[in-house]
Amino acid sequence: MTTALVPGSFDPPTNGHVDVIVRCANLFDRVVVGVVGNPSKSPMFTSEERIEMLRSSCAEWPHLEYVAFDGLLVDCARDVGAQVIVKGLRAMTDFDYELQLAQMNRHLSGIVTMFVATAPALGYLSSSLVKEVAGLGGDVTKLVPPAVAAALKERIADD
């Protein structure tokens, strides 16, 4: 049984994130979605909120598992028993950075990283852009799953 770890900050989850997760759900026996706290960023949503948005967005795939983590990705991979880390790529700029991380992770743990190209129609999406558009009053309903759009609207209204 092959376990894949799909990590990310998912702040908030976008349709691009869901696309990669769903494709992994169709490829691997067990898929764990790892939500990183990422201390270098100030998240809009807590890890628990992000996990709930992902659960709602991927409800058709009940076999997916979710875990929040801080620290090294390879430690999370080891903790969940993952044989592979899967990262989504939007563009060559993502590849340059992610390749370096993949090589470091392989050096630290021996774990392999696989890259999945996002669907071309979703390649422009990023959580940062979604937050910016939503914060300026723009419509994000075609960029994120419905539960995420609702959470963004509520969070922005609270601010």
Describe this structure in words.
The structure is a single chain. This protein is of the alpha/beta class and 159 residues long. The protein has a single domain, classed as Rossmann fold. It has helices at 15-25, 47-57, 73-80, 92-109, 127-135, 146-158, and strands at residues 3-8, 30-36, 65-69, 84-89, 112-117. The radius of gyration is 15 Å and the shape is globular. It starts with a strand and ends with a helix.
Quote the beta fraction: 15-25%
- The number of domains: 1
Mean pLDDT: 93
H/E order of the elements?
A: EHEHEHEHEHH
Would you identify the CATH architecture? 3-Layer(aba) Sandwich
Helical percentage:
40-55%
Low-confidence stretches: none
Kindly name the structural category. alpha/beta
Distance between the termini: 45 Å
Question: CATH homologous superfamily name?
Answer: HUPs
Number of strands: 5
H/I helix tally: 6
* Structural shape: globular
Gyration radius over CA: 15 Å
Q: Could you give the order of strands across the largest sheet?
A: 3-2-1-4-5
CATH topology: Rossmann fold
